[in-house]
Amino acid sequence: MRSAAKARSRQALLDAARELAAKEGYQACSVDAVATLAGLTSGAIYSIFGGKRQLFAAALADYWVLPSLHEVAEPGAPLQEVMYAYGQHYGEFMSGPLAVAAIDLGIEDVAHRRKHPQDDQHNPTSEISRFAAELSEYADAAGETLPLAPEELATVIDRSLGGLALARLQTNEPAGTLFGYVAASLMRGPA
């Protein structure tokens, strides 16, 4: 019975955090405002999550995961087409207000991990490995060769599209089609 109440409280806090982050952004959200919207006390946030950063990390976890190639194309399609579609998908995914809040949180999280490396629970390596495996699968299915080793290419794509997402945060540019062009161009490899 008690675990069911805790699960409902947890979900209410996650929903409230997402709603406020979409309206106000991560930085402007307060623990008290999230708790009030959820119909709970701020103590519930600390009890369940440990603090604001951990609450929002859980609420915005979808934005810390690289989209899957399977979301945009079937294996066997030419890699440049797959990557163009992937880049556009990534650009659209990272254009909403929750994405902006997730980027803000990500920046704060990096700074926190530099100061407190013992708190690092985020493992981007597993995401890169998963994405690298998908790149290999798609290259094999298309009968094409990747321009770099899969892990290196996955890292380059992640950082390139992540950089564009940061640029969008600052300038509201670039448009989603540029994400597609960048991702597709990475399939050509070094000149």
TrEMBL record:
Residues 30-49 bind DNA. It holds the Pfam family TetR_N. The keyword Hydrolase does not apply. InterPro entries: Homeodomain-like_sf, HTH-type_TetR-like_transc_reg, HTH_TetR. GO terms for molecular function: DNA-binding transcription factor activity; transcription cis-regulatory region binding. Keywords: DNA-binding, Transcription, Transcription regulation. The keyword Protein transport does not apply. Residues 7-67 form the HTH tetR-type domain. This is HTH tetR-type domain-containing protein. It comes from Streptomyces fuscichromogenes.
